[in-house]
Fold these 3 entries.
Entry 1:
Amino acid sequence: MPNDYLIGTGIYDVTGPAAELGMMGMASIEQKTEGIHSRLFARAFIVCHQSSNKRVVILSADIWSCTLTLKMEVVKRLKSLYGPDIYTIDNVLLSGTHTHSAPGGYSHYALYNLSILGFDKQNFECVVNGMVQAIKRAHENLAPGKIFINSGNVEDCGNNRSPIAYEQNPADEKAKYSGNTDKEMILIKFIKDNAKEIGCVNWYAIHPTNRGNKNKLITGDNKGYASYLFEKEKGANIHEKETFISAFANSNCGDISGNVKYGIPDLTHDFIRMQEFGEKQFKKARELYSSASIQLNGSIDYRHTHVDFSKVKIEGTDNRTFPAALGASMFAGSTEDSKSEFGLIEGIKATITGDYPAGQKNIILEAINLLSGLLTGFKVPGILEDEMKNGHKPKPIILAQGLAEPYPLSPEILPLQIIRIGNLVLLGTPFELTTMAGRRLRETILNILKSSGIDSVALATYANAYAGYITTKEEYDIQHYEGASTHFGPYTLMALQQEFGKLAMAIKDGKTVSAGPTPRDLSSEQTNLQTSVVTDTQPMPWIPFGGTQTDVNSFYKAGTTVKVIFWGAHPKNNLRTQGTFLEVQRKEGDKWITIFNDNDPCTIYEWKRDFIANSKITITWNIPTDTKAGEYRICHFGDSRDISDKIKPYTGISNTFKIGESLAINEINFKNSFGKQVELWFYHPNDWLRWSAYSKHDLKKDEQFSWKVPSGWGKVQVRFTGPGKWKTISVGESINIKASGDIENIT
Ligand SMILES: [Zn+2]
């Protein structure tokens, strides 16, 4: 087979302001950044078909979603780097992983800056620059190579959070599938002809919401964690121009969450949940990567158009879409991932006249009042025409953001993009599709392109823009969270299938498509109400930036936690892109060697304001159990701003501390009389962040098992998945899981 592809990959830091910027996804005004658990990255893949010279860019970033303005600005900068024809809106696909723990403020539409308190130039610039740099690296790395495709199911990795809505779909349609979630992960692997492994990207449907709406530390959540594990195993280094990258992109996860299994995130268990769902994705990706043997071959092609979703006519019917509006249940929040700020519950349906149900009218009107208070400067019509009400029925409209003046609060002119690489087709959509909505769309496209040699259709969601959810018409009619958040009414999915179908037909027939209407440019309309750094002050004139407020102890055991508090400055002064706010160092000979930085999940950089302009920086290191004995220290890097606006870097260094050998190991004994396999999850009862403390054992039917408790623990908290109970157990105890599922101590 002639090898005809040039391939290249690139990665770059997109970690935005780590303090006092609203996080995007949970729509909570209180959820502002206060530190970093892991950095965020943009990962870019370029494929160029040499004989036709056609190329495509696929980029996935650890952010909530791409937006229209991010896409426009990235393409503009690529054009200034490479000329007008190499990278365009048509062949560049930019998507977000949908992490809910990353700073926001990079949309030009008010609805998506509401909880952020406006557009944030600094974060916008950070994300745009990171995306451009990742693509630039991929471009500079282009060389002949091969792409392999593989797919397989990820088991027990996310549940449907609106199963009642899913159940509304026709029985014969449901019967075609094994369940109410899509378990399939599709992965493509990039290997250069010189045998260098340069990365992989996969698409798998799950909400990265294990870190709930109380979390204030920046993290890529389960998808970012999966990327971290894979890249670490491959020895990746972001400072090299070419390194292995592994992107975990999202798919039709509209109704899929890992939290259904455990309930609303409580901040205490969020980290181990994230590890559970991140590890499952990582392990499957690694397995698919190492066993991939089917090579992608053939032409590269793409089509892109903008569609005005406020008025798509469904051909051959009298049905159409309508200007964007949100239903009352949207403000209930997704009951499984976060709690409503308004006290509403899901499933609120309109009366026959399209009005609010009597019992909930007051609380809905209260929510509207609160919203209009936040949306100063916009006129949102309070009394709607019957046509609009009927068009959205049975959704009781709580906010008709598509009719706002002087312009809509969320976009209606939206990009649809289809990319072909050999026999794989990728659909770039700005929506979050539910499981069944995604299946319908993929089936529509596969039916059109099957005869052209396409056998895989992957869904790239949160791509190129964002405009809410899409459910099936049947799911819409029951008005759960996802249905209430479907902006353009009950026929949105049909409109999407119809318009994507046109792009697929054009690919099939080798025809061009119209560019569609141009999205409005709102760059001059942006305001911002966030706190900014005026100046940083020292707590006392004689305490320098980087001085310690609370220093380390002199001795620690592996498996315990080191904490040091520095007097520092605001992280907005310098994002330290591609850098770090901290380093854990070990002494080797007379040199200090860095072993961890702020991207490693065993470290936490935390910022807190103290008085008016002092910053308190807490650095936590959960010492992994396999840490060598020796001398260690923790460094903090920051930048302070003085009254004349000058920014100066500073460094803080903790005292040196020793890590000693572990003490003797104790055990807890388990016996399983439950009658079937049980999962045991272990961790420290007081300190969930002790990542080394977490481990899992599959306790088979009738198995007896002794678990070695890490030194210095005393007690362990165990989750028994199966019987589904928690228990705190002391070292030396013997536990039996009875046939009834109850736990008993055997003496
Ligand atoms: Zn979502």
Entry 2:
Amino acid sequence: MAGVAALSLAAAPAQADELRDAVTADLPGLIALYEDLHANPELSFQEVETAKKLAARARALGFEVTEGVGKTGVVAVMRNGDGPTVMLRADMDGLPVIEQTGLPYASKRRAVPQSGIETGVMHACGHDTHMAGWVGTAQLLAARRDQWSGTLVMILQPAEEIGEGAKAMLDDGLYTRFPKPDYVLAFHDAAQAPAGMIGYANGFALANVDSVDIVVPGVGGHGAYPHTTKDPVVLASAIVMRLQTLVSRELNPTESAVVTVGSFQAGSKHNIIPDEARLQITVRSYSDAARKLLLDGIARIARGEAVAAGMPDDKMPRVSVADPYTPATFNTAALTQRVAALLAPRFEGRVKEVPAVMGGEDFSQFYRADRDNVESLILWVGGVRAEEWAKAEKGEITLPSLHSPFWAPDAPVVIATATEALTAATLDLMAKP
Ligand SMILES: [Zn+2]
Ligand SMILES: [Zn+2]
């Protein structure tokens, strides 16, 4: 499907130019909003000012707005006759990152995250572009009520970065207190694609993300008398090495997964065998079955290696899996193909099927909450400035990733592209019969 855009030379629909012109006219206002959001980021579940600011905008456009859904979330509903219910989502939170872009509207904000240690705050994931695109789309759809029929639900989700915000909104009645969507759509800016490109994965788009902690007990003692101890450093090392076989030897090789031990802590001094080691592991997968295989395997290996090391039953490793986890994001086939076919001629040469990535997004929750009745799609919108992309292609620079203190997307292009794409998709899904 990567060639879809190139094949389509048909004239764009009459609406295309009108819509693009409207986006262009709205863009200066959206950029001003973006710069304000960028300069004033808020951490997960602290998006109080952000929510208030954007709720007021939605209210002014004629939406019924409810604040405080899932702590700081916002739900804006516009009922416009019979037809499908379409939900558009933007996430609001920034990250505990000290901005180093040098932009005139760079964030100087500080705040205290869950860790309890004060830090700088930055929209290093581009959620500010998502919110500006969300407002842009809301404006265009509100002004075109005569062109669509159905119920539009526009939500601002908190706490994506800690994987809890989508679940918090669902647990607070997103699908029971408000109209339940037939379609849910969102976009995410992309740090590894040129500005204005639209990427879509067909099927899995982002991974299951699990955080696993293992406490490995030992029996401590003098480093010179190891025979009087049970060394947890050696045992935990054996666990780390054996974990490498989960993906290489147990998972079907046509499936993708990652088991990374990101932290290994033990001991305090050369000549002391400690009485405990601790491992922190990130586990990435796509299917529920692969996830189960990996998590079961981690528990089995930890125990098996402890038995092999001669640990007694009451000193088996303790394995804990963080709950809730971030489930894999899935783009459903019919919606994905419909939107891709719609956008390809409109954005000629800029729409491309892309592979899934091992990052995580709790946008997944909106589909998983009712897999039989909800169709879902998240689009990537490339954000790398043309001149930087050209340099990177020549190997002259390395591009910063999302979450980097240097990530500075080409915001006008991202916002314009996303606003037009989401508006066009929604108008298509809610077209009057
Ligand atoms: Zn992020
Ligand atoms: Zn993000």
Entry 3:
Amino acid sequence: MDELMPLTPVDESWQTALCVVAHPDDLEFGAAAAVARWTAQGKRVVYCMVTSGEAGIDGMHPDQCRTVREAEQIESGRIVGVDEVIFLGEPDGIVEATVALRSRIARVVREVRPDIVITNNFRETWGGRNLNQADHIAVGAASVDAVRDAGNRWIFSDQLVDGLEPWGGVREVWAAGSPQATYAVDTTDTFDAGVASLEAHRAYIDGLGWEDWDAEEFLAGGARQAGSRLGVRYATAFEVFPMGWGE
Ligand SMILES: [Zn+2]
């Protein structure tokens, strides 16, 4: 990542965004402050969790963890103005970018009819030497494909009953936190809401056992770096994938 390269403001002339990520907490590690900005502008943002993060807390059995983490995600969304949270219930930790997963995401795209789809970084790394997690890579790749599938009436056409129509209106897919991000949005005014939404994942954060870890300090690090490249105090950076032809 070129830490000095200026970032371009994302296009905010949209009304509905669908966020598709692997786990509860994925959006809260940076994107939630941007979501708070957009919901405050009157935009509709819908969350879709592919798994419920039930394998994410070592000391808690998945049966209990699933309930805890779903509740934390719903509260986390509420804090940034999101009141629609969908859980697909795929198994945490072993998600694969299969045709079956594309089908499930495509159905959600057809139901929500978003202008923008937001997912997590699905590049191999986060920019340093730490490898990205397998579920993130699978969900990001499946989401891009599912957006294309959703617009094609001859793909997953069994879904097109009871008024459900193809939806080809997704203009772009945005990957939050990508090391190849070249776009960003100013989150200076909503940074605090983003922090609060991460802190809502209390059981998860406690389960990580990171001593003296501070959500605000952690988020400020990334937000300040993106902000300096956008020319503001805090920002969230995105890699933008156009979904039309010829770009
Ligand atoms: Zn994750």
